[in-house]
Structures are given as C-alpha cells and as structure tokens.
Amino acid sequence: MDSTVKRVWKGMIPIELQLAAADAIELLASAVLPEPFQTFYMLVPRVSYMPFMVTKIKEQWLNPMLEMSGLSNTHTVIKETDIWFEYRGQPLKWHYPVGLLYDMLVSDVEHGELPWALTLHVRKFPPEAALVPSPSRQSMRDMFMAMVKEADFIRNGSTKRVMDLSKADQMQLLDGIHNHEFEKYFAIHSIIVSNNGGNKQRGGAPKAIPMRFYMASEPQEANSEGSKEAATNAGMAQFHISQYPVPLTKDEAEQATLADAFRICYEIPEQAGDAFVTNCACLCQGISVPWETPVSWLAENFFYADCFLHLVVVNTSK
User: Fold this and answer.
1) Is the Cβ–Cβ distance between 99 and 13 less than 8 Å?
2) More exposed terminus of the chain, fewer Cβ within 10 Å: N or C?
3) What is the mean pLDDT of residues 167-171?
4) In Å, how far from its chain's centre is CA 265?
C-alpha cells in the first residue's frame, strides 16, 4: 500500500470537548463540572465518524464523572444515541466523516483551529429537525455500508463487488474503520477498489470517480443556477453539495484534473471555471490540493473510508 495512503489514514484531529452547560445542570445540578472532568481531550481519525467515538467518551469521561458525583447508580442515564456534538452553535452531522466536518466548518487553509473545540450534548436534540438523532452502532454501520455501495456503483456501474463480500468480510471492513485498524480495513478495501486509479485489473479502469464537492453558497452564487446539485444543505454554513460521475480522462489521452471535475459538477464553462478556481482553494483530507492534480491520483490516495473523495471548496479571495 502506498505510503501516501497510510499517511492519509493516520491523519488525526485533536478535539477538545466540553459538556454543554444546560446538560451539566440537568445531570449534576451545576454548570461547573468537578475536577478533572471540565474538559476531555481525544485524537479522532479524520476518516472516522463521531458516533464511533461515543463509547470512549462515555467510558473515559462521562461515566467516571457520574461515579465521582455519586450519580452512577441513580436514574441518571446517558444513552449513546442521545449524544450529539456542536461547533459554534452548529450541530455536527454524524454521517459526515470527521475530517470533512472540520474542513467545512473551520476551512482555514493556513492556520486551522487545533485542538478543535466542540460542545458535547447528552440531552435535547436541536429543534426543527436540524439534526437527525444519533444512530445506534448498527445503524451507523448500515449507513457506512450504503455509502460504500454507492461508491461501488459510481465506479463500476453496479454494486456487485460490495454485494459479493462475505458477511465476515463486511464485518472486517466495518471493524477496521470503527477501530481504526489499517491492515484490517485495507485488506477488504483492496477487493472493492482494485482499479481505483485506472489500473487494468478486474475489468479495466473505473467508469467514474466517486466524488462530492462541498461549497459555501456565497462563492457559488454566480454559478449556482446550472449546477448539478445532489442536495442543498440548509445548515453547515449554507454549503451546496454537488455530485456527478467524473471520468478519469477528458479524452482518450488527457487525464481529467480536479479543476475539470469541478467544472463538470457545477456545469461551468472551461474559461469561466479557470477564472473561478483562481479565487478558491480545494481541501481534501485537510490539504489544499492544486487544481491541476489528476483525479486519478486523488482517487488512489486521498479517498475517505467510504471510498468517496470529499472536497471542500473555500473562497480565498477575501
């Protein structure tokens, strides 16, 4: 396995968690938590998901805090499915990879924000369906496998490779991402994506690359009318999500670049697209990727665990 892939897999975000004051009052009758439980620090893999972290948070932070406060044997119960996270008033979507969430909400190409300061909630989901309730472990795994199947369909025109996995192989893939075990995950990933970047194996090059662009509405407004949007996210800083099957080449000889993929997804003419991208940066896995990068190379090296490329477009003209 390429060393770049391993380095991407090992990418971590240091996170600083504080319990919401209202939740602390409900649990402990005080907004001030006992020492040493005021803050909880953890390293979270970029390719993972916040629901995979909640067991550790409960076992190493919340449960010991309740025990010290003498509340562990009372009616005070914290369910993992009640836990949700917030950043500066914005609930975090649990079905987005952690690295994608960070790139969307922090998106400071030069400085970032480390550790990433988040608020933990254990009660009262946001009103008006701003956040789908947290899933059970099995529901989270089902969602992840659904994304892997979608990526397989985009790449190969069917979900045969994923559907042909044995139950044991599926469990190994899920355990690998859940526990962040490189060898366990990639042993199965290599079966699903043996021709990711165009290697002539098992039926030739992929039909298209699974990729999604996430772009704030402000820099997109001039071109949003004709974009091939998969959805428009009313939250998450008004990001537009655009997905379209992107081929590996523009013609038989020339490789498609990241800029080409962007123009395809948003239906921007080439000349206008060149002018637009000069004022934007594209983040993938926390790295500002040059627009001339071939999508085949990105597909081989910068993919997330769900087999998609998740690309955040940031306006740098301000």
Assistant:
1) yes
2) C
3) 96
4) 19
With cut-offs at 50, 70 and 90, classify the pLDDT of residue 31.
Answer: confident
Instruction: Give the strand order in the sheet containing 239-243.
Output: 229-232, 239-243, 211-216, 309-315, 280-284, 287-288
Picking from 311, 213, 222, the residue whose alpha carbon sits closest to that of residue 264 is 213
Higher pLDDT, 204 or 285: 285
The set of residues, in sequence order, having a beta carbon less than 8 Å from that of 24 and lying 6+ positions away, is 30, 31, 32, 33
Mean pLDDT of 284-309: 96
Q: Find where tokens 């199947």 sit.
A: 149
User: Which helix (H) or strand (E) segment is 175 a member of?
Assistant: helix 167-178
Across the range 128-154, mean pLDDT stands at 86
| Measured distance CA(18)–CA(3) in Å, rounded | 35
Q: How far apart are CA 197 and CA 262, in angstroms?
A: 18
* Interatomic CA distance for residues 260 and 249, integer angstroms: 9
292 CB burial (10 A radius; 0-12, 13-18, 19+): exposed
pLDDT in tens, 303-316: 999 999 999 998 88
| DSSP assigned state of 44 | E
